[in-house]
C-alpha cells in the first residue's frame, strides 16, 4: 500500500520538499531548492539569493564590483558590472564612436592605464574591508585576528552605517565582540537609523554580548531615530530572558537616584543622575507603552506579562493600554492574564476594550471581558448596561448592540426623562441595521424623550430608510414632540419632497398647528421657497390662511419676506388674506414689503387691496412708520397720497426694541429734514410724548445735535420740559431735552433751551443724570458755573440707569463724587464752594 501522504509526482522525477513541484534531475532539484533557502547571503545587508550571479549583481549596489568589469574610460559614470558582457555592451554603446573619431585618445593611453591601476587598487582596498565584514559575519575569529594584526581597517561600514561591532553583536559572536572591544575602535558608533551595537545585540537576543557592551560603557538609555531603546528590540523579537534582565537594570536605575551602580554591568555605563532621571521618565511616559505595543503586536505574550506584573514603573494606565491593545488584535489568552488585575481597571476601560473586540467580532474576548470584568462592576442593575448600550449605538457597532442586548440590556429602559433612547440615537445617526436590531428586541417605536421621538429625529436628519422602517413598524407620524415642530414640519424644513410624500401617505396631518419652534407645514415651505413642496402641500389640503405665531407669519407674509413675487401672486390667487394681522414674528404683508423696500411687491399688494393704515404690532410699525425708519422718500410720498395716518400711535404693548416710533419722532430721530418737512406739511403733531420706542421730537433732535431742527420745533411750540420715557432696553431713550443737551456738551443748544424756558433743576432719571451731574462728568467748567449760577441743587441725588452695559451703570454719580472720580480739582473746588458734600457710600 502506498502512503496516504505520497506525492502525485510522475515516476522518475524528483519532488521538492518545500512545494508540490517535481523536477526531472537531481541537479535541477538542487537549483530549484535554492529558490527556497536562498543560500547566497549579502555580507552587507544580509539579503539572500538563489544564484551566485544574482548576489554579484546585488553587491554592485553596495560598490562591491569586480574591477575587471569596470569601465576604464576617464570620467565615465558607469558604476561597473558583475558580468563582462554587460561591460562590453556599455563600451560599444557609449565609447566606440568616440574612440574611433577622437585622435587625442592615442595620447591618453597612459592616463587610461593610470585610471585602471587606480581602480584595481580601490578594488583591493574594498575587498579587504568587505573581507573583514565577511569574516565577522561568518564568525571567523582566527582570520579576523590575522587581518587585525596586518592593519585591516575595522572602521569600515556597510551602506547602512553598520560597523563590524554591529554585525558581530547581531550574529551572536561573543569572542569577536570581546576582541573588537579590546581594540581602539569607537564602541558607540551608530548606524544611519541611529542604532548602536547594543540595539543589535538586543535584536539578536544575545544576553552575554549585551552585558559585555554595557560593561564597555554603552548606554541602556540610547534611543534610535524612532525613539526606541534596546528594550524595544527585545519586545519586538520576543527575547524573554533578556527582557527580564533589562527590566532588572531599569528597576535598579530607578532606585539608584542616578548614582553609579555597584554591578559590573553598569559601572561603566556612563549613566549620571540627570540622564538616569531622563531615561526613567521616558520609560514611564513613553517607553512602557512602546514595549507593550511591540510585544503584543508580535505575539510575545510572555514578555507582556513580565512587563505588567514585574516592572517597577507599571501603573494603571499601562494595564489599560495593554488590555485595549490585546482586545483589538485578538490576543485572548493575554486578555485573560490582564484581567487577573481587573480590580485596577475601570468600567470605562473595560468597555473600551469590549468595543475594540467588537470591531473585530471577537466573541470569545467579548464574552471574557463582559463576564470577568464588566458584569461584576455593573452588578444586577439595568442603568449602567443601558448606558453602555447607548454608547454602542452612538459608535454604530451593530455587533456590540446585539451582544449587549443578549447580555440583558433592555432597549425599552430609559435612564432618565431627559436622556435619549438607543432607538432615538440610532435613528438620528441613520444606522438602519441598529434600528432594525432594536426594534426586533422590542424597543418602543413612539417613545417620547426630551428631544422628540425616533421618527422625528430620523426625519429631521433626512434618514429616509430609517423613516420608512419606523413607519413600517407603526410609528405615529403625528406624535407630540414636546414643543418642537411636527414630523411633517421637520421634513418640510429640510426640503425633502420624498419624505413629505411618504409622511402624508402614512397619515401625517398637513395642517398641524404651529408651535413654539415652527410655523405650519405650508408656512415653513414658503420660508424655504421650494415651489414643488408648496404645490404638493396645497394640493394635499394645506390651509393657506393659517394664522401667524411666535415662530412664523402667515404664508403670504413669509412669502413677502422672501421677496418672491411669483409666489406672492400664486398665494393671492389661491385665496391668501392680504390684510391678515401681524404677529409676534411678522408684520402685515404690506408692512413687511415696505421693510424690504420692494416697490413692485408694494404696488402689487396695494393693487390687491392691502390696508395702508393697518395698525402697528409686536413686530412692526405702521406702513408709514416703517417707510420713515428706512428713509424711503418715494414710498412715504406714495403712502401719504393714499391717506396714511400721519399721527398713528405705536403699539404700546410691544416690547420689541426695534420698532419705529410715531412718524414725526422717527423722522427727527434719523435726522432727515426733507421727511420732517413732508410730515409737518401733512399735519404731523410735534407735541407727541415720548414712548417706549422714541423720545419726543425735541429730545431726539437734541440728542442728534440738530440745531436747525431744534429751533424749528421750539418755534412750533413743543414742550421744552416734556418728560422722558424710561424703559429697560439695550439703547436707552434720550432724557429731558436740557439733560440731553448738557450730556452732549453743546453750549449753543443749551443756550437755546434755556432761552426757551428749560428747567435746569430737572431731577435725574433712568436715562440721564441731572444737568449738573452730566456737566461734571463731561468736565465742562463753563457749563457747571452757569448751572450753579442758576441755583441748581449741587447735592441732587443720582439715579442708576437700567444697566444694560457690562460696565453696569450708564448714569453719572452725584456731582461731587463724579468730580472726584474724574480727578478735576477745579470742578471739585467749584462744587465745594457751592455747598456740595459727599454723603458717603450707600
Detailed description of the structure:
Among the domains are: 20-97 and 108-154, no CATH class; 326-379, no CATH class. It is mainly α. The longest helix has 30 residues, at 109-138. It is built from 45 helices and four strands. Helix 9 packs antiparallel against helix 10, helix 28 runs parallel beside helix 30 and helix 32 (589-596) runs antiparallel to helix 33 (599-607). Strand 3 (40-41) and strand 4 (48-49) form a beta hairpin. The termini are far apart. Helix content is 52%, strand content 1%. Strands 1-2 form a two-stranded antiparallel sheet.
Search tags:
842 residues, mainly alpha, two-stranded antiparallel ribbon, elongated, Ankyrin_rpt, Znf_C2H2_type, zinc ion binding, zinc, zinc-finger
Record the SSE blueprint.
Elements: E1 14-15, E2 22-23, H1 26-37, E3 40-41, E4 48-49, H2 52-59, H3 84-94, H4 96-101, H5 109-138, H6 141-149, H7 164-171, H8 174-181, H9 197-204, H10 207-215, H11 230-237, H12 240-255, H13 264-267, H14 273-297, H15 301-310, H16 316-329, H17 332-338, H18 347-359, H19 363-378, H20 383-394, H21 398-406, H22 422-429, H23 432-440, H24 454-460, H25 464-472, H26 487-493, H27 497-505, H28 521-528, H29 531-539, H30 555-562, H31 565-573, H32 589-596, H33 599-607, H34 623-629, H35 633-641, H36 663-669, H37 673-681, H38 697-704, H39 707-715, H40 737-743, H41 747-755, H42 771-778, H43 781-789, H44 815-822, H45 825-833
Antiparallel strand pairs: 1-2, 3-4
Helix pairs in contact: 5-7, 7-8, 7-9, 8-10, 9-10, 9-11, 11-14, 12-15, 14-15, 14-16, 15-17, 16-17, 16-18, 18-19, 20-21, 20-22, 22-23, 22-24, 24-25, 24-26, 25-27, 26-27, 26-28, 28-29, 28-30, 30-31, 30-32, 32-33, 34-35, 36-37, 36-38, 38-39, 38-40, 40-41, 40-42, 42-43, 42-44, 43-45, 44-45
Protein name: C2H2-type domain-containing protein
GO molecular function, one term: zinc ion binding
Pfam families: Ank_2, Ank_4
Amino acid at each position: 500500500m502506498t502512503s496516504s501522504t505520497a506525492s502525485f509526482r510522475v515516476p522518475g522525477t524528483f519532488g521538492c520538499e518545500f512545494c508540490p513541484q517535481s523536477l526531472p534531475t537531481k541537479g535541477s532539484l538542487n537549483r530549484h531548492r535554492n529558490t527556497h533557502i536562498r543560500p547566497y547571503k549579502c555580507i552587507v545587508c544580509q539579503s539572500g539569493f538563489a544564484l551566485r550571479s544574482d548576489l554579484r549583481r546585488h553587491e554592485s549596489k553596495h560598490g562591491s564590483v569586480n574591477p575587471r568589469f569596470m569601465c576604464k574610460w576617464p570620467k565615465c559614470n558607469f558604476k561597473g558590472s558583475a558580468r563582462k558582457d554587460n561591460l562590453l555592451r556599455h563600451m560599444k554603446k557609449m565609447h566606440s564612436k568616440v574612440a574611433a573619431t577622437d585622435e587625442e585618445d592615442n595620447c591618453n593611453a597612459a592616463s587610461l592605464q593610470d585610471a585602471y591601476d587606480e581602480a584595481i587598487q580601490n578594488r583591493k582596498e574594498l575587498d579587504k574591508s568587505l573581507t573583514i565584514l565577511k569574516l565577522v559575519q561568518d564568525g571567523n575569529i582566527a582570520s579576523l585576528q590575522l587581518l587585525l594584526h596586518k592593519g585591516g581597517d575595522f572602521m569600515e561600514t556597510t551602506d547602512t552605517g553598520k560597523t563590524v561591532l554591529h554585525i558581530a553583536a547581531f550574529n551572536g559572536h561573543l569572542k569577536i565582540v570581546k576582541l573588537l572591544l579590546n581594540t581602539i575602535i569607537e564602541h558607540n558608533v551608530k548606524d544611519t537609523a541611529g542604532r548602536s551595537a547594543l540595539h543589535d545585540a538586543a535584536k539578536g537576543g544575545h544576553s552575554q554580548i549585551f552585558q559585555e557592551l554595557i560593561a564597555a560603557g554603552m548606554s541602556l538609555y540610547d534611543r534610535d531615530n524612532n525613539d526606541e531603546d534596546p528594550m524595544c528590540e527585545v519586545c519586538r523579537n520576543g527575547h524573554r530572558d533578556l527582557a527580564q534582565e533589562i527590566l532588572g537594570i531599569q528597576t535598579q536605575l530607578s532606585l539608584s537616584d542616578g548614582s553609579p551602580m555597584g554591578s559590573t554591568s553598569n559601572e561603566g555605563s556612563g549613566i549620571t543622575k540627570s540622564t538616569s532621571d531622563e531615561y526613567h521618565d521616558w520609560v514611564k511616559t513613553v517607553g512602557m507603552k512602546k514595549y507593550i505595543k511591540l510585544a503584543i503586536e508580535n505575539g510575545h505574550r510572555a514578555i507582556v506579562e513580565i512587563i505588567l506584573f514585574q516592572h517597577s514603573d507599571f501603573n494603571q494606565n499601562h494595564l489599560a493600554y495593554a488590555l485595549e491593545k490585546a482586545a483589538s488584535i485578538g490576543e485572548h489568552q493575554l486578555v485573560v492574564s490582564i484581567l487577573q488585575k481587573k480590580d485596577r481597571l475601570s468600567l470605562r476601560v473595560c468597555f473600551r476594550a469590549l468595543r475594540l473586540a467588537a470591531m473585530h467580532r471577537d466573541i470569545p474576548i467579548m464574552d471574557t471581558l463582559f463576564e470577568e470584568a464588566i458584569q461584576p462592576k455593573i452588578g444586577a442593575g439595568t442603568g449602567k448596561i443601558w448606558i453602555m448600550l447607548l454608547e454602542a449605538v452612538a459608535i454604530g457597532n451593530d455587533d456590540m448592540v446585539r451582544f449587549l442586548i443578549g447580555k440583558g440590556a433592555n432597549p425599552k429602559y430609559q435612564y432618565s426623562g431627559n436622556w435619549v433612547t438607543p432607538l432615538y440615537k440610532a435613528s438620528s445617526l441613520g444606522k438602519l441595521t441598529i434600528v432594525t436590531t432594536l426594534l426586533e428586541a422590542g424597543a418602543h417605536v413612539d417613545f417620547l424623550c426630551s428631544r422628540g421621538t425616533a421618527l422625528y429625529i430620523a426625519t429631521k436628519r433626512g434618514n429616509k430608510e430609517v423613516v420608512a422602517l419606523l413607519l413600517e413598524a407603526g410609528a405615529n407620524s403625528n406624535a407630540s414632540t414636546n414643543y418642537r415642530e411636527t414630523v411633517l414640519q421637520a421634513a418640510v424644513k429640510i426640503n425633502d419632497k420624498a419624505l413629505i410624500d411618504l409622511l402624508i401617505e402614512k397619515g401625517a396631518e398637513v395642517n398641524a398647528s404651529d408651535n413654539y419652534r415652527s410655523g405650519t407645514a405650508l408656512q415653513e415651505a414658503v420660508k424655504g421657497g421650494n415651489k414643488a413642496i408648496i404645490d404638493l402641500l396645497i394640493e394635499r389640503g394645506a390651509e393657506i390662511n393659517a394664522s401667524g405665531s411666535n415662530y412664523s407669519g402667515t404664508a403670504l407674509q413669509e412669502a413677502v419676506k422672501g421677496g418672491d413675487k411669483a409666489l406672492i401672486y400664486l398665494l393671492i390667487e389661491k385665496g391668501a388674506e392680504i390684510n391678515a394681522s401681524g404677529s409676534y414674528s411678522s408684520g402685515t404683508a404690506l408692512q413687511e414689503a415696505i421693510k424690504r423696500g420692494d416697490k413692485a411687491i408694494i404696488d402689487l399688494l396695494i393693487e390687491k387691496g392691502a390696508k395702508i393704515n393697518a395698525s402697528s404690532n409686536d413686530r412692526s410699525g405702521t406702513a408709514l412708520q416703517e417707510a420713515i425708519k428706512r428713509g424711503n422718500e418715494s414710498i412715504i410720498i406714495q403712502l401719504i397720497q393714499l391717506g396714511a395716518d400721519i399721527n398713528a400711535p405705536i403699539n404700546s404693548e410691544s416690547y420689541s426694541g426695534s420698532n419705529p416710533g410715531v412718524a414725526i419722532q422717527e423722522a427727527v430721530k434719523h435726522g432727515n429734514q426733507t421727511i420732517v418737512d413732508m410730515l409737518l406739511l401733512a399735519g404731523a403733531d410735534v407735541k407727541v410724548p415720548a414712548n417706549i420706542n422714541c423720545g419726543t421730537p425735541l429730545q431726539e433732535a437734541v440728542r442728534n445735535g440738530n440745531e436747525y431742527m431744534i429751533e424749528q420745533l421750539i418755534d412750533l411750540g413743543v414742550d421744552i420740559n416734556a418728560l422722558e420715557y424710561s424703559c429697560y432696553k439695550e439703547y436707552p431713550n434720550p432724557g429731558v431735552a436740557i439733560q440731553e443737551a448738557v450730556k452732549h456738551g453743546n453750549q449753543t443748544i443749551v443756550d437755546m433751551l434755556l432761552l426757551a424756558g428749560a428747567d435746569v433743576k430737572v431731577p435725574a432719571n433712568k436715562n440721564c443724570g441731572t444737568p449738573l451731574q452730566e456737566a461734571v462728568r463731561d468736565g465742562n467748567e463753563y457749563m457747571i458755573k452757569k448751572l450753579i449760577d442758576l441755583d441748581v441743587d449741587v447735592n441732587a441725588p443720582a439715579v442708576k440707569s437700567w444697566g444694560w452695559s457690562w460696565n453696569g451703570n450708564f448714569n453719572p454719580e452725584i456731582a461731587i463724587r463724579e468730580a472726584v472720580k474724574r480727578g478735576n480739582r477745579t470742578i471739585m473746588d467749584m462744587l465745594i464752594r457751592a455747598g456740595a458734600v459727599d454723603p458717603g457710600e450707600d
